[in-house]
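Re: your question from the hallway

Yes, I did run it. Sequences:
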Amino acid sequence: MSDVTRIWTYLSADPLLWLTLTLVAYLIGDAAFVASGRRPLVNPVLLAVAILAVVLRLTGTPYQTYFAGAQFVHFMLGPATVALAVPLHANLPRIRASALPMAAALVAGALTGMVSAVLIAAAMGVTGQTLLSLAPKSVTAPVALGVSEAIGGSPTLTAVLVILTGITGAIIATPLLNALGVKDWRARGFAVGVASHGIGTARAFQVNETAGAFAGIGMGLNALLTALVAPLLAPPLIALLTH
Amino acid sequence: MILPLAILLGFQLLGEITARGFGLPLPGPVLGMAFLFLALTAWPRLAARITDTARGLLGHLSLLFVPAGVGIVGHLGEMQADGAGLALAIVGSTALAIMAGVGAFLAVVRLTGGAGDAG
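Structure:
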């Protein structure tokens, strides 16, 4: 018994355990996704997060301890974002041909996402700092946190809302777009990237490589647009709604 | 494996230095993506060296969001007060944003008589 405790004490403070569990939880999530016939609702990220959340709760492990191990996976987000340039370059002729539709979809998708989120939340009685934290939730986490801080929101709450938006986009995009009968992979991917950043983009890559490439561009362009526009647009809109 | 990874990290580093050096409101990796894209346009032969590694990374992009996602655990309490409003706002706005984006994209394709390049 004391041996088990001793081993646990060592392992629970060591990056190895939490790094391994992160990969295993994701493999379980991905296996469930494949076994379900790739149903969008069986989202590998959502399942892996749920499994790890239960493990942390049951073992009383603080998030900081977990992250000390999991940060090696988290770190790879940087080079993966850089790697989006590769499908971007491979799809260059089609992207050049769709510059105008992309510009229209970027403005429509980015503004609709931001304004409708604030309007719905305000109508449901959400106020103040929480509303400000919600405004940048459609863009990739590092940009969203910067915007949230700049407009007076709470960056940690924004991080949570960003992840939830990504998972929501990944789950609803395929059934929603199939129901609407949209068959253009460029339009599908781009709109999903604009609305639900990297998690939506990851999902788009699972469905179709063209959709994935366009989702990556949508994510990148919305990061740019939101970083420039949200600080000007969100605070006056929220002031108007809450007075 | 090592060379492509060094190339990707090198561009990320370049993006990080540029963003901080000029005080730009953009994350380093997003700028790094833009720089790598420019480099690929200038030297198309670079693509052959990094394509496999890039595909490998992007094929498992979902995994990379798991550690940040687990951070939700620390905020469950805070979110309870506004839970319903935030949930409705996230689901509603994400669906509306996807529909607005797709609608605008297809409308402009139709207006400009763009080729039906749907594949």
